[in-house]
Amino acid sequence: MKLQEIISVLEELAPLAYAEDFDNVGLLVGNNNADVNGILVCHDALENVIDEAIAKNCNLVVCFHPILFAGLKKITGKNYVERAIIKAIKNDIAIYALHTALDNHKKGVNKIFCDALGLQKTKILLPKENFIRKLVTYTIPENETHLRNALFDAGAGQVGNYENCSFNSEGIGTYSGNEDSNPKIGSRFEFVQAKEIKIEVVFEKHLENKILKALFNNHEYEEVAYEIYETKNKHQNIGLGMIGELENALSEEEFLALVKNKMQCGGIRHSALLGKPVKKIAVLGGSGSYAIKNALQAGADAYLTADLKYHQFYEAENQLLLADIGHFESERYTKNYILDYLKEKITNFAVVLSEENTNPVQYF
């Protein structure tokens, strides 16, 4: 397969438009037109992982964390990032990173986290903002169903757990064509009043070009009247973090023991125990101190994340159990999920899981 074909498969798993603006996701090293003969899936594309890819005859490394995050002005091999990049380039190994594109997916990092703990009734903790747009257009009744279905096929009309959503209303449209016009109804220079259907649909902003292509290709009019609006609605199914519930409430000690076992934690740093049962759990894989207030507002009994600083434990405000379980630990099953997805989608060559432990934090 060509690398671009595999990238298309990966973007079905984690659309790059879902990634946070600060992130560096997608193809980091390599040529879209290169032939791929094997894929190594890992958490971090470090130098030892590139060595592993060479040994296993894999010329594509799919990683969760982007090895290239900040910009590089020189590549001299002076640090672990530069050494990994140099080795990958020398050996014609491509590197592709998913990171927050998968963090924000409703079945991504935080759903994997929730599933590992057996949480039910899960929903996004921080729904993504400024991501939904609305298309309004007008057409004749004879074109209504065909046009609307074309917009649905292009990805419009998704609202939460529902699809094919639209609002349609009848009205009277007017126009007069000039000497260069070729009107569908009426003649040039004629003032036309015609029954029209107003169609309104929402869509994810990265689909705009696809939506407009469907609109223009399936509309009856020579000149297509339409408007696109940015909305303030939050996207219910895209965003960071997740909140869910245990089937049965546990004591704080029982809950922390469950987390330590299921997430294979070397240790858990946590806020003061409050002596109350734990049932409603908020999680955010990776660094999640910024969402403590969201976990509180959501009524969570406990919030699991990583990379908390000393003073941030005070932000629990004696209202919830705040626990830092480790960055790697909170994301540990992500690479397994990526592997299973790729194995299901790509069956004509090897997709293998890295055996290298790239967790930089050790416990005594």
Strand content: 25-35%
Q: Class by helix and strand content? A: alpha/beta
Flag low-confidence runs.
none
Q: What sort of overall outline do the alpha carbons produce when their principal axes are compared? A: globular
**Tally of contiguous helical segments:** 11
Question: What is the H-and-E element order?
Answer: HEEHEHEHHEEHEEHEEHEEHEEHHE
Strand order of the largest sheet: 5-10-12-13-14-11
- The N- and C-terminal alpha carbons lie at a distance of 45 Å
How much helicity do the residues have?
A: 25-40%
Biggest beta-sheet profile: 6 strands, mixed
Mean pLDDT: 95
Give me the count of strands: 15
Q: What integer value in Å does the Rg equal?
A: 25 Å
Plain-language structure description:
The structure is a single chain. Strand 2, helix 2 (47-55) and strand 3 (60-65) form a beta-alpha-beta unit. Helix content is 28%, strand content 30%. The longest helix has 13 residues, at 141-153. Helix 2 (47-55) runs parallel beside helix 3 (80-90) and helix 6 (141-153) packs antiparallel against helix 7 (208-218). The chain is an alpha/beta fold and 364 residues long. The chain has a six-stranded mixed sheet. A five-stranded mixed sheet has the order 1-4-3-2-15, with helices on both faces. 37% of the residues are buried. The chain has helices at 3-13, 47-55, 80-90, 100-103, 109-117, 141-153, 208-218, 252-262, 292-297, 327-330, 334-345; strands at 26-29, 38-44, 60-65, 94-97, 120-128, 132-139, 167-176, 191-204, 226-230, 235-250, 269-270, 278-287, 302-306, 321-324, 350-353. The chain is globular. It starts with a helix and ends in an 11-residue tail after the last strand.
